[in-house]
TrEMBL record:
Family membership: Belongs to the PBP/GOBP family.
Keywords for the protein's UniProt record, in alphabetical order: Disulfide bond, Secreted, Signal
GO cellular component, one term: extracellular space
Disulfide bond in keyword set: yes
Name of the featured protein: General odorant-binding protein 19d
Source organism per UniProt: Drosophila kikkawai
GO molecular function: odorant binding
GO BP terms in the entry: sensory perception of smell
SMART domains given in the database record: PhBP
Amino acid sequence: MKPFAAIIALLAGILILPSIEGQNQAFDLAKLMPKSGSQPIWTVINRNLPQVQEMINAARKECLQQLGLPKDQRPLMQVASPTAKEKCLMECVLKKIKLMDGNNKLNVGQVEKLASLVTQDNKVAIALSCGMAQTCNRIITVKDSCEAAHQFNQCIGRQLDRNSVKLVW
């Protein structure tokens, strides 16, 4: 776990320092890390992640009904070549949980809220999550909302895999 903390600290410095340096303020990276005596971030995530999964499951259930898909529809997080209807299922779920907006972009504000909920306001995790969303928004420019949802799903899935976070939709 210690190498992961070092990587997060490094990434946080890369992501956050440039915007703070221009403000002529002293910057203390330690303020972003959990206080001593607090629970390890993975303990917090594992405890809080089920709340987000429940929200995803509820949205998925509504979307399955709305699109006329079977209740036993396969999870789509790791599906490289989904059908057109499955791509629209992704769009429906992402929009219901407000991760995707009407402009076919990830809602960085909602990403921030969910990251805060899951990590109990861990500033590093929030910054990394928002950075991931902004990266996905920059590289995904398709106009079709279902295709955009599929590409966001792939982008988010890669990031979650890299960080060993298990969510299913």
